């Protein structure tokens, strides 16, 4: 147990302040993870995660939780991309994100890219639990390797529950040691950036957005519940972001 | 005969003559034959001839997914909800003979959604001379060839020409131009088919599809008797 | 039980509608990602470890007696593409029709009543395996094999690929099929304690986006 890696956690609780705004009664981080409040707009509180960029390394275990209580509005971003690097400790690094939003609450979870550097081994799990009337906009972008670099091993799972019902559960595994064919014509076909936008809006129950495609590498699809998913692959992070933004525009403003 | 066919299995499978609610299902007639022989045109003409007197619907089995269905839609021979295209993975003969599951779904969905129906026409995509319909899918089948395809087709036989309940020799108006001998075709067909009926038709003539429509009416009378 | 029933169920000629589906191969061929036996092998391998693993796990869990409605919902959550959800339900309904005639029984009748428009095909497959006297591992093998045999057969038609080459692709995947079937059974075992969240959720972005693009084509040979 000489090199077990770093444990870090950040916790955010957003709560209506009773005056139409959102307070952050809990905003804490330890180790390399540090959430900071920035200037919000209107009813929304804004938080930036600082320091996520410095890890995680092999053996590290990061956990971020955000709770948006009834009627509150929270927007979370990150100061820079997160870089997964090989560590001294053996074994994979884990990054767990747990997000909850209560009735009439709104969460925008928009971190910068996750870059899987050569030799790294990271497993990211994002679990979102929404109340029936909560709203969500979540972006996930994975970049496989820095410019011209082989990627590390990256496993990323994204699950969404709305009112207790699982609406999405997806895992993508890539890099050396991933199950065969991950870079082949059925999965990534050489694309080095892959991303998703997950959008939940109660009104999608009655009026789901129509499925759309943007070229062969991106699609907007209604899920089996009041949510929509954008899936996109691209040659690089820049073009991925452009595709996701184009797709979000198709879904209309929140 | 399969007109009275029943089996002990669960309802609404294969060629059961009754629907799950116990009512008689629609008569199903298949139309097959080589590419370009005039199957879709015959289906369109049959729809026009019969739609006032019967409640009918069409299932198409295209090679390229929806072409035939779209032809029928464009010509408005039936309301769109009465036309369904079955996708066949490039093999219409598989979808009408070896694996009829998709066609059975299509026929039953049409009956559920637009029924009750008297008649469902199941059209195969143009395929080869051996393509025939499964008895689990249709109650009777029509094989459509045309004079321009060569007047030796009846002589050559094959399952479609030999065993179809009705053989239609189409485009008789073209016979003089392509040098087809209608008399020889009739004699060969009779020899191959052992008394099963043959209709010679030109959809451009005044009688048009009348003989085939009369044959369909007779089958339907036997089915509902 | 008769292991030979597995041969009947896994036979590509089992009349359950699979012949009209390419498992994404038609789109991959048109997009130029599958051009020969080597790229077909890579396509099939990727499909096996994503869709194939998920399908095999769903089938194994259904064969082990997990509630089909819970599995069907789990299949929905693992299938973001509505085109693929529709195709899976259509194939499930067709399989159920063929199976009720082949292995009649109360459990399949109940499934047909519960899902008149079809449940996800792997869920139906698991229950059909049960009805045929087969177990979770058989069901997993069947689902995993179908996940690659469909695209291989379709590619023979789409590219006029040498059928011997396509069959060799499948044969060379055999050891990986074994591993996927084992993993699927292991996951199905965990479902008994942990619920359907224990099922794998491996996904293939290009199969998802490709299926949506394919569904919009005006002219195509395969239904999916």
Account of the protein in words:
The complex is a heterotrimer of chains A (254), B (225) and C (224). The mean pLDDT of chain A is 92. With 254 residues, chain A is mainly beta. The longest helix of chain A has 15 residues, at 237-251. Chain A is globular. Chain A has one helix spanning 237-251; strands spanning 7-16, 22-29, 34-38, 44-50, 61-68, 73-78, 82-84, 93-101, 106-110, 114-116, 121-130, 135-144, 153-162, 165-174, 193-200, 212-213, 218-222, 227-234. By secondary structure, chain B is of the alpha/beta class. Chain B has one domain (24-224): Rossmann fold, CATH 3.40.50. Helix content of chain B is 36%, strand content 17%. Chain B is built from nine helices and seven strands, in the order βαβαβααββααβααβα. With 224 residues, chain C is mostly helical. Chain C has helices spanning 4-10, 25-30, 37-63, 68-77, 82-102, 106-114, 121-131, 136-159, 163-172, 174-194, 205-215. The model of chain C has no long low-confidence stretch (mean pLDDT 96). At the A-C interface, strand 14, strand 16, strand 17 and strand 18 of A face helix 3, helix 4, helix 5 and helix 11 of C.
Report the largest inter-chain contact: A-C, 37 and 47 residues
Q: Which oligomeric form is depicted? A: heterotrimer
> Structural class from helices and strands of chain C?
mainly alpha
Question: Which percent bin holds the helix content of chain A?
Answer: under 10%
Query: For the report, how would you describe the main beta sheet of chain C?
Result: none
Beta strand count of chain C: 0
Distance between the termini of chain C: 34 Å
- Broad CATH class of chain C: Mainly Alpha
Given as residue ranges, the uncertain stretches of chain C (5+ residues, pLDDT < 50) are none
- Biggest pleated sheet of chain A: 11 strands, mixed
Radius of gyration of chain C: 16 Å
> Which CATH-level-2 architecture of chain C?
Orthogonal Bundle
Percentage beta strand of chain C: under 5%
Global morphology of chain C: globular
Strand-residue proportion of chain A: over 45%
Averaged pLDDT of chain C: 96
In CATH, the topology of chain C is named: Urease accessory protein UreF
Short description:
Chain A is mainly beta and 254 residues long. Chain A has one helix and 18 strands.
